[in-house]
Amino acid sequence: MRGAAVSILHKNQKSLSLWQLICFGVLTTPLAMGGLALVIFIPTFYAVDIGLGLATVGAVFVFGRVFDVITDPLIGHLSDQTRSRFGARKPWMTIGLPFFCISVWLLLMPPENIGVLYLVLVSGAYFLFYTIVDVPYSSIGLEISPHVHERSMLASSKAVFQVIGAIAAASIPFVLALSVPQSLGVIAQTVIVLCIIGFILFIAFMPKGERQVSAPKLGFVTSIKFILRHHVFRYLLGSFFIIQAANALTAGLMVLYVTHVIGSPELVGAFLGLLFSSTALFLPLWVILSKKFNKKTSWMTSIIFCSLGLIFAIFLGEGNVIGFVIFSVILGASFGCDAIMPTSMLADVVSETENDGQNRYGATYLAIKNAVSKLTFVVPMGLAFPVLDLIGFEEKGQNGASQIFTLVFFFAILPIILRIIAFFVVKVAPTANAELALKNG
């Protein structure tokens, strides 16, 4: 009976148009451009060009990630509990976006003779206002559609525009033949312009309706406890953590692998571009699989697909550029599924916990997932890099068989083990009622 009722409800709800899906995703592009600049260009710029030093800059950005892990759930909870005539999400985005643009400008275009305190304050502002914009914005993608498969389309829209932003930011120094400081100026201006355009499109064309909440407001701790009691979410969070840890190891060591195993450091940029491109190109495949079978099957297929690719990578050697091209395509394709399926599955969880009149939880659910994702990207720095340093791995020199094997272990073998564990966690995980109802309806 419940399945039939949900199916009827889904049939009666109007789907989002292609234009609305595009308008939803556009704002992701400037956020992704700023994020890639933060990872690729800014640390070296502040450490070398400005002269603050690698250790100091590294410590500042590690602190920023820890800061994010704390602020993400807090901002998510505050957004969930916000009640205004403009909704719960848009006020936060409206407040956060101008300050995000200012922090981007200050971070990418610093004045002369700045010191560590400037970097700490400006990067802290960047992390905070990025969260204030991104968490409410992304949580709308979990709530806006009652259609199970359309939630995958919303996640795919964000993923496509995220790839566009990453490729755009990475390409600017090469396409425009600019130095890193000049490129950061262009990126800053582009991010600000696209933030304005993306926000206008979002406000103008996305549906304005929002579920009304009449229940008493909840405290932060109460909300967290409620969310962590959800058994489907616990399985989803656990499998997502394992997969992201595996991805962080492979992505974090890719430059070293290309340099010391494949022996083609000059092709690192090309391999990264191929990885980003295949992420976008394979998104329709995962959506089709999820629609034909279910989201768990789509994600498990991707996990196996990537594991086979990692096994293939183990046997690559010096000069095997074509082999690494194939591997980059496989890895990028899997990264796309790892991005959209957990998000779409989370939207199903949110859908079944947010009934009429009850409190919102979408932003807090998403913020906890984001915090876990950010924690996993410390894995290469906290696990692989210290071990490589301990055994005497030479980043710019020659390495022996034991050093290369250790690199291969952290780049491919350990991620394979983690993915196999994740596969079985996903396989036994319960499914949210929203997808079960559609399947049985």
Describe the protein in words.
The protein is globular and about 65 Å long. The protein folds into 2 domains: 17-210, MFS general substrate transporter like domains (Growth Hormone, Chain: A); 215-433, Growth Hormone, Chain: A, CATH 1.20.1250. The protein has helices at residues 2-12, 18-25, 28-40, 42-49, 54-81, 90-108, 116-143, 148-175, 180-205, 220-228, 231-252, 254-262, 268-281, 283-292, 295-314, 321-353, 362-376, 379-390, 401-428, 433-440. The protein is mostly helical. Mean pLDDT is 86; it is low at 1-12 and 436-441. It is 79% helix and 0% strand.
What is the number of helices?
20
Rg over CA atoms, rounded to whole Å, is 22 Å
* End-to-end gap: 8 Å
Q: Strand percentage, roughly? A: under 5%
Q: Element order, helices and strands?
A: HHHHHHHHHHHHHHHHHHHH
Largest pleated sheet = none
Average residue-wise pLDDT: 86
CATH architecture of the largest domain: Up-down Bundle
Number of strands: 0
CATH class of the largest domain: Mainly Alpha
Report helical residue fraction.
Answer: over 70%
Structural class computed from helices and strand pairing: mainly alpha
